[in-house]
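User: Mind token order:
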Amino acid sequence: MAKSRNSVEKNYIYNLMYQMLVVVIPLVTTPYISRVLKADGVGAYSYTTAIVGYFALFGNLGVATYGQLKIAGLRNQKHELSKTFYELVILKAILMLTVTGLFLIFIQINGEEAYTDLYYVQIVHLVSCLLDISWLLQGLEEFKKVVIRNLIIKFSSVILIFAFVKEPSDLLLYTFIMTGSTLLGNLSVWLYLPRFTERVRFRELNIFQHLKPCLTYFIPTVATSIYLTLDKTMIGWFTTTSYENGYYEQAHKIEQMAVTVVTSLSVVTMPRMAFLYKNHETDKMILRLKQTIKFILMISIPMCLGMAAVSDYFIPLFLGDGYDKSAVLLQIFSLLIVVVGLNNAVGKQVLMPIGRQSQYNTSVIMGAIVNFILNLVMIPRLYSIGAAIASVAAETVILFMFVYYSKDYIKFTWIGCSAVKYLISAFVMFAAIRISYRWLSESWPCLILQIGAGVIIYFACLILLRDDFLIGAIKTSIGKLKSKIK
């Protein structure tokens, strides 16, 4: 346990791979599934996943975030770390088993007979949540081992989908493959447990001492999950078919992949920021925070405008016929790449590590309230588009509140000034892509050409504008390469 910590850069890459697996695997199968299950089947899967997500939410009860921060502070005390780990695992097992029982009761009494079989299959999702101990590895800043095993399991799920899901009636099988692959991935992590923990006597454990602090971290989790899943639920309430949820689900998947790229850095830096704060290294905290925000701005702004620029071509090519509305939704969702990226940077690198959980909770709850109110107003009129607008508005409210509560560490004016060069370069890229529509046809080679040219134009503009962060990163990379060659 005394081994040196992995570098943030390596952990970012590993965690990025891990997080993207969760999003990319469904995304790889999306063009196929959208054609096989149709929008109706995709909508049914999305709706039942949202419902079981509510039960999983209460079963998890904030253990993941609380456990990650707790483990980060105990990584040099193996016995205390092991004691805390087993206390949290048992607490989570009690909660999750209780929630699973309640979900079984819900299946029996709910009036949605068309979804009953899907609900039973979704129980596998609750079991996989019970066995999820990824928070232990995140707290220890260990990601490589998880990635390798999950690569094998997730790729196996892709093979199974293409091999066995052939028609709309295979919806149950598709759901089982998706939930089952997550379960196997979570099980595989337990094989590494002996390396990081030691035996602890049961009488040493004080399980329920963690209940109150877990509840503190549960509040923002439940608020966030509510406005992430409530959109799908309310679309189902206000529409008579599953099609709107199908459009929403597919656009949301694509946006989530892009968001994962920018939020993964905050996940791996949160334990390090907690460590720096505990050791009173505030200057290093602020420096790392500013570097993270600069990096997020540099990659999220072009991803946002680039996604908005190509969505009209990308959606028909990627999803097939019948998903035109997803292109409009994706243009709206693209704003979340920037907003959610900044939310994660400020919330998980400032408010959480320094113990300002009450301000974090207040911000997220306010976002959930804004989302719910706007959903009530907009979904009956605009359906899935109204839900997408409500999500963007909620995340924007949270961002402003996060920055306000972190004003002694970071200021909104600094963020705005830092974004200027990235916005200029991204708008030039956006204009070039839109103009190219006049000459390029709707095909994969043309789309790839647009994306490649857009990337070159963006970074060329940044170099012309003499962006310090990019130029510094290039010089550092060249220096490392030269030293390795020598």
Q: What stands out?
A: The two ends are 33 Å apart (CA to CA). The CA atoms of residues 161 and 309 lie 31 Å apart.
